[in-house]
Specification:
Elements lengths: L1 H4 L8 H9 L4 E4 L6 H11 L3 E5 L3 H13 L3 E5 L5 H13 L3 E6 L7 H7 L4 E6 L19 H7 L5 E5 L4 H10 L7 E3 L7 E7 L3 H11 L3 E5 L3 H13 L4 E4 L5 H12 L5 E4 L12 E6 L6 H8 L9 E7 L1 H14 L3 H14 L11 E3 L2 H8 L3 H13 L3 E4 L6 E5 L3 H10 L1 H13 L8 E3 L1 H8 L3 H13 L3 E4 L6 E4 L13 H23 L5 H8 L12 H8 L4 H15 L5 H9 L4 H13 L8
Parallel strand pairs: 1-6, 1-7, 2-4, 2-5, 3-4, 5-6, 8-13, 9-11, 9-12, 10-11, 12-13
Antiparallel strand pairs: 14-19, 15-19, 16-17, 16-18
Length: 621
C-alpha cells in the first residue's frame, strides 16, 4: 500500500476486505461510490504471486486503471471487444509468458471467446476480481449474461479467491451475486450507505433552469448537473454560461481527447459545473463536489444513489437535489416501455443490422462495424431508445456486442520486414523516405502495434495531416503495414456467424422477470420522488436493506416535518425581507432570486404563499 500507492492507512473496511482475500476467502465488498474499491483488489493482487483477472464492463475505466497501474511501474493489460486479432494475441502472450504482468482486465464478452478460453488455462491466475458485480444478477438493474461465464473460470482455478465489488445492491442482489459466483461460503463486507454529510432534496419545479441557477447561487463550489440525453448536456451548459456560470458539457459521444480535456478542466476547477449524462463519473474521485443536481428523473434508485453520491467525498456538507415535474413521472412509464421492446422487434433489429452490413447467413463472426444509433433509428423508423435497448438485448443473447470509442490513439504495425520491405522501397521510391521516417520515429513496429501521432509524423515529414493520413492508408492498402486510425465512434461487433433471427433464443421467463423487476424499480423511484412524509435518506437506505436508520433531519421532508415550515422568528425575518422587495415592485421570480443566495428557498416560498393567501402582498409571477 505504501510502496505503490503512497498511503499510510486504509479507508474504513478496506483492510478487512484485503485480509479476507489474502486468507483465500471468496469475498463480496459493498462500498459506496468513492469508497476506494480498486484498492481492495489491487493491493492483494500485488501481495500475491501471479496474475489477477479483473472482469469489468467499462472499457474507459479499464483503460484508465491500466494506465494508472503502468504509471506506478506495475505491468497490466486489457482485453475487450473491438481489439484487433494482433492486439489480442500480444496481450494474451504477455500475461502467459511474462511473470511481471500482474493484472489482466477483461470485458465480460471476452470471456466467451475461443481465444480466451483456449489460453486461459496457461495463465498463472491467483485471484479473480469482479467489478460492478451486480451485473451478474438477473434481479439487478444492469444484468449482463456474459458475467455468468465467470463461474466457469472458477472451475479452472479452484484455489483462486474471488473478490466481487459493487457500490449498489439490494439484499436480493447481494445473495444472488454470491450464488452466481459460487462462493464457498457467504462472506459480505458492507459499509453503511448512510452519508451524514450529504443532504437529499426533491423539488417539484416547472422552471427547472431558474431553480438550478438559484441552487448554484446558494451553494458555492464545484457541481455536477445530470441530464437524460446528450442534446440536453450542451443546451443546459450553454444556459449556465449565458448566466455567468463557468460550465461545460460531457457525454459518451464526444471524441476521447475532448472528454479528457473537459474532465480535466472540471477536476482542476477551471470549469465550475459539468453538465453530463450518466456516462460521467465512473472512476472519477473529485472530493470537493458541493452539489449534484438532477434535472431529469433517473430510471432506478441504484443509478441515482451512485450519481448523487459523487457529492461530498471530502466529508464536508454537500447537497443532492432532484428537480421534477409531472411530465417526468409520465416519462418514467414511457422509458420502461421503450426499455423492453417485444421479442419479435428485437429479432427484426438483428436481421436488419445483418442486412445493412451485408453479412450473409453462416458468416460474419468477429465483424466490426461503426454503429450510428440516430441514423439507424431514422432508417428503421424506430425510437432511438427502443433501438438501443433492442441492441442491448441482442448483447444479452450473445450474438453482438456494442462498444464505445475503442481506439483513443492511432496504431501502426509493420507486416513486411527484411527483404520484402527492401523490395517494396526499391519499387516505390516515392514513398520509401516516408517508410524510413516511420521506422526512425517508432520502435517495435515489426513485433507489435505501436501508438502513433499523425500530427508529429506530419511535422517531421514536412507534410499536412491529410497528406500524412493518405500515405499511411496507401501503405495499409499495399499490405506493408496495418494502420488503425483513431476511432471516436461506437462500434458493433458480431460475436458469431449470422443465424436466422428466429433462432435467437431469449428465455421468456428471464425476460419477464427482468421486466417485472424494472417495473418495481420504477415504482421505487416514483415513491421516492412523490413521498411527502418520509425522510429521503431513510427511503434510500431502506431500499438497500438498511431498515433501522434514523431520519436525517436535513432533507426537504425532515425540514418540513420538523419545522412545519418556519418558526415565528424566521417567519418575521423573511416577511420583512419579502415585503421590502415587494415594495420595489419586483416579481415573485425576482424576489426568489434575490433571496435564494442567503435563505432556504422552500421557506421563502412558504412565507410568500402565506403573505399572498392573506392578501398582505400581490406579486407578479
Amino acid at each position: 500500500m505504501k510502496q505503490y500507492w503512497g498511503y499510510d492507512s486504509f479507508r474504513p473496511m478496506q483492510e478487512d476486505i484485503i485480509l479476507s482475500v489474502l486468507e483465500g476467502r471468496d469475498t463480496l465488498a459493498l462500498l459506496p461510490t468513492g469508497g476506494g474499491k480498486s484498492i481492495c483488489f489491487q493491493v492483494p493482487a500485488m501481495a500475491l504471486e501471479g496474475l489477477c483477472i479483473v472482469v469489468s464492463p467499462l472499457i474507459a475505466l479499464m483503460k484508465d486503471q491500466v494506465a494508472h497501474l503502468k504509471a506506478k511501474g506495475i505491468k497490466a493489460t486489457a482485453l475487450y471487444s473491438g481489439m484487433s486479432y494482433n492486439e489480442i494475441q500480444d496481450a494474451v502472450q504477455n500475461v502467459m509468458f511474462d511473470p511481471e504482468y500482474r493484472f489482466l482486465y477483461v470485458s465480460p464478452e471476452r470471456l466467451q471467446t475461443d481465444m480466451f478460453r483456449v489460453n486461459l488455462e496457461k495463465m498463472p491466475v491467483k485471484m479473480i476480481a469482479v467489478d460492478e458485480a451486480h451485473c451478474i444478477s438477473q434481479w439487478g438493474y444492469d444484468f449482463r449474461p456474459p458475467y455468468l461465464e465467470i463461474a466457469n473460470i472458477r472451475k479452472i482455478f479452484p484455489q483462486a479467491p474471488v473478490l466481487a465489488l459493487t457500490a449498489t445492491a439490494t439484499p436480493e442482489v447481494v445473495s444472488d451475486i454470491q450464488r452466481r459466483l459460487e462462493f464457498k461460503s457467504e462472506n459480505v463486507f458492507q459499509k453503511s450507505f448512510k452519508r451524514d454529510n450529504l443532504t437529499y432534496f426533491v423539488v417539484k419545479e416547472e422552471d427547472k433552469h431558474g431553480r438550478m441557477l438559484r441552487i448554484m447561487q446558494r451553494y458555492p463550489g464545484t457541481g455536477i448537473v445530470y441530464v437524460r440525453n446528450r442534446r440536453k448536456t450542451a443546451e443546459v451548459a450553454e444556459f449556465l454560461c449565458q448566466n455567468g456560470i463557468t460550465a461545460d458539457f460531457y457525454h459518451a459521444g464526444l471524441p476521447p481527447k475532448e472528454r479528457d480535456r473537459k474532465q480535466e478542466d472540471w477536476m482542476i476547477g477551471k470549469t465550475r459545473v459539468i453538465v453530463a449524462t450518466n456516462a460521467f463519473g465512473m472512476g472519477i474521485d473529485k472530493p470537493d463536489v458541493r452539489f449534484v443536481v438532477h434535472i431529469d428523473v433517473p430510471d432506478c434508485l441504484e443509478a441515482y444513489f451512485q450519481e448523487a453520491g459523487r457529492g461530498g467525498r471530502d466529508e464536508k456538507p454537500s447537497v443532492a437535489i432532484l428537480l421534477y415535474d409531472a411530465n417526468d413521472l409520465r416519462q418514467l412509464s414511457r422509458n420502461l416501455t421503450m426499455s423492453f421492446p417485444p421479442l419479435e422487434t428485437i429479432r427484426e433489429v438483428y436481421d436488419d443490422l445483418c442486412q445493412h452490413y451485408y453479412i450473409e447467413m453462416g458468416s460474419g463472426k468477429n465483424t466490426i462495424k461503426p454503429f450510428y444509433l440516430e441514423q439507424h433509428a431514422r432508417r428503421m423508423k424506430m425510437d432511438p431508445v427502443q433501438l438501443f435497448n433492442a441492441v442491448r438485448f441482442l448483447e444479452k443473447a450473445g450474438v453482438i456486442a456494442l462498444s464505445e470509442h475503442l481506439r483513443e490513439t492511432s496504431q501502426l504495425h509493420f507486416k513486411l520486414n527484411g527483404d520484402e520491405l527492401m523490395d517494396f522501397e526499391d519499387n516505390h521510391p516515392d514513398i520509401a523516405e516516408f517508410v524510413k521516417l516511420l521506422l526512425r520515429s517508432y520502435g517495435g513496429l515489426f513485433t507489435q502495434y505501436v501508438k502513433i501521432d499523425e500530427q508529429l509524423i506530419a511535422a517531421r515529414a514536412g507534410l499536412t495531416l491529410e497528406e500524412t493520413t493518405v500515405q499511411l492508408q496507401t501503405l495499409h492498402q499495399a499490405g506493408v503495414v496495418s494502420y488503425q486510425p483513431q476511432s471516436d465512434i461506437p462500434l458493433i461487433v458480431f460475436l458469431q456467424d449470422r443465424i436466422p433471427e428466429n433462432h435467437i433464443y431469449f428465455d421468456p421467463s428471464v425476460y419477464d422477470v427482468q421486466k417485472k423487476k424494472a417495473q418495481e424499480r420504477v415504482e421505487a423511484v416514483r415513491a421516492y420522488v412523490t413521498s411527502q412524509d418520509e425522510c429521503r435518506s431513510r427511503l434510500l437506505l431502506s431500499y438497500f436493506g438498511e431498515t433501522d436508520s434514523m431520519a436525517c433531519g436535513q432533507c426537504d421532508v425532515c425540514r418540513k416535518n420538523t419545522h412545519g415550515a418556519v418558526n415565528e422568528q424566521e417567519f418575521q425575518k423573511l416577511s420583512r425581507k419579502i415585503l421590502r422587495l415587494h415594495r420595489q415592485g419586483l416579481s415573485k421570480k425576482i424576489i426568489l432570486e434575490q433571496l435564494a443566495a442567503q435563505e432556504d428557498e422552500e421557506r421563502v416560498l412558504f412565507v410568500m404563499r402565506w403573505l399572498i393567501d392573506n392578501n398582505a402582498i400581490k406579486v407578479q409571477k
